[in-house]
Write a structure and sequence with these properties.
alpha+beta, six-stranded mixed sheet, 13 strands, 35% helix, elongated
Length: 276
């Protein structure tokens, strides 16, 4: 049973605001289990430490799963968190002026972009609609390639709740779609939510054109970073090369951790190598 997402804000000891969202679910035997994903958001590392020293006051001993970002593993172990999954690595593109972003592109990536720009392809931008072909293509692609992704319905719900914040860049030729990329806009960041390129579009480097056009527009809209998602060099080396070819910087998250009852006391004595 899913429970409503709660947003929590409070002042830290240094008068800086901390913010995090809690997702909860009721499970058999365990009862309510809370999860915080990539939080809490804090202005300074010292605010994270303040959160670690006080989170149990509002947690009330319930199981807490934390997808950490910004808290050193050794401090999580000291606070009684048990490591569940190793950290993922993200590809984050700094969004600046077009000339700087083009200069940061890897040579092969830039060459493909140049060819696409000269091939007469048409790029359009428009809000996400509930019946856009990309949604079905993404669901079909995930099934064929055997990966799990957020359901397309979530993107549609985001678009409805945040008008103008779910934007599509679509590349076509003579009316035939070759590629599409969906970006979600939120604050200073934007997120690559999903993308699909046809066989013909791959030959014509249509996704390079869609993505770089989106990068320029997002920068003009005031966004500073584009999150291209995780990098998996073992299972998806081609996609990893494509993401890094944009000049993206790698950002290692803090892994997935569990804080739960008696395990907390044991976790505090885990070997230091598990904090690496």
């Amino acid at each position: 049973m899913r429970l409503p997402i709660r947003r929590i804000e409070r002042e830290s000891g240094g008068a800086e605001r901390l913010c995090w969202q809690v997702q909860s679910r009721k499970l058999p035997v365990l009862g309510r289990v809370d999860m915080i994903s990539r939080g809490p958001v804090a202005a300074a590392p010292s605010d994270h430490m303040d959160w670690l020293n006080s989170f149990e006051r509002w947690q009330d001993g319930r199981p807490l799963i934390l997808n950490s970002d910004g808290i050193a593993p050794e401090y999580l172990i000291k606070a009684g968190f048990w490591p569940l999954m190793t950290p993922a690595t993200l590809a984050l593109v700094p969004l600046t002026d077009a000339a700087t972003m083009r200069a940061r592109l890897h040579q092969k990536w830039r060459n493909r972009l140049n060819r696409a720009e000269k091939s007469g392809l048409r790029v359009t931008r428009h809000p996400l609609s509930a019946n856009h072909w990309l949604l079905e293509a993404e669901a079909r692609q995930a099934k064929v390639k055997g990966y799990r992704s957020l359901p397309p319905a979530l993107s549609v719900a985001f678009a409805r709740a945040n008008p103008g914040k779910a934007q599509l860049w679509e590349v076509s030729q003579r009316g035939e779609p070759l590629a599409a990329a969906l970006m979600l806009r939120h604050g200073a960041m934007a997120t690559w939510q999903m993308g699909h390129v046809t066989v013909e579009g791959r030959k014509r480097n249509a996704m390079n054109l869609a993505l770089f056009t989106a990068m320029q527009a997002l920068a003009e809209q005031g966004h500073r970073v584009l999150d291209l998602g995780t990098i998996n060099t073992q299972d998806a080396p081609g996609l990893a090369r494509f993401k890094l070819g944009t000049g993206a910087e790698t950002h290692r998250l803090g892994g997935t951790w569990l804080h739960f009852g008696a395990l907390a006391a044991i976790a505090r004595h885990l070997p230091k190598r598990l904090a690496a």
